[in-house]
Amino acid sequence: MLQNGKRQIQQMGSQLQLNQHHLDTAFNFFKLVVSKHLTWGHKTEHVIAACLYLVCCTEGTPHMLLDLSDLLQVDVYILRKTFLLLACELCINAPAIDPCLYIPRFAHMLEFGAKTHEVSMTALRLVQRMKRDWMHTGRRPSGLCGAALLIAARMHMFQRSVKDVIGVVKIIYQAILRKRLTEFEDMPTSQLTIDEFMKVDLEQECDPPSFTAAQQEAKMQQLEQELAKKLDEVEGEISCYKDEIETELEKSRPKLRGIYTTYTKEVGQF
């Protein structure tokens, strides 16, 4: 079993582009699982996927449980259950930052009825796309989960308000959720129809929103500097024209003669 497990870990790990250290750690987890007889009642490939995901969590790699689900073509709920069991039994405090661990529970709380699973899977696909577009960088999972669930609910014709969602995902400010929605709106995925989103997987990746915002701010500052420079140049030209006009007007004024000249000089002295 160990040799077969090691081989499968190598195969899955290479597809996830994990390095050798990650694969060795996953194999060590797998050996612990086997020694504790935790494989009973679970498919070996599911256990191996859970071990690999334990490594992803502890090492902080940018993978979701959904990536392993896609790799094995198995329901993410099954892998989630196996992962949580192993993490508990092995006493591994894996950082719970993957939205896959939250969305099913949040979807159930939003009461989608028979379509809870469908809405959850759509929300997970949305989060997967958000992560690919770097929207998760520096973000708490609750904001991404909330945005994904709200969009998924609308896609499946459920009317859930921003207030409904933030009450479930425990976001303090509505502005956080609205910002995630605005960031997603700027992504190419938001331009797809529902059918296209379900069928098309865009290869294009976007820059992180923070990077894009910084670029826009730098561009605005550059434009402001260029505008200020042009204004200074225009004001300088206007000043020159003003001086020239006054000079020409002075020249064009008729010169007074006789008694009027004397009178003007006297007035000027006062």
TrEMBL record:
Highest taxon above the source species: Eukaryota
Main location per the UniProt record: nucleus
Domain Cyclin-like residue range list: 7-88, 101-186
Recorded GO MF terms: RNA polymerase III general transcription initiation factor activity; RNA polymerase III type 3 promoter sequence-specific DNA binding; TBP-class protein binding; zinc ion binding
Coiled coil: 213-251
Alphabetical UniProt keywords: Activator, Coiled coil, Metal-binding, Nucleus, Transcription, Transcription regulation, Zinc, Zinc-finger
Any Pfam family the entry gives: TFIIB
Subcellular location(s) per record: Nucleus
Metal-binding as UniProt keyword: yes
Family: Belongs to the TFIIB family.
Protein name in UniProt: B-related factor 1
Origin species: Oreochromis aureus
The organism's taxonomic lineage, starting at the top: Eukaryota, Metazoa, Chordata, Craniata, Vertebrata
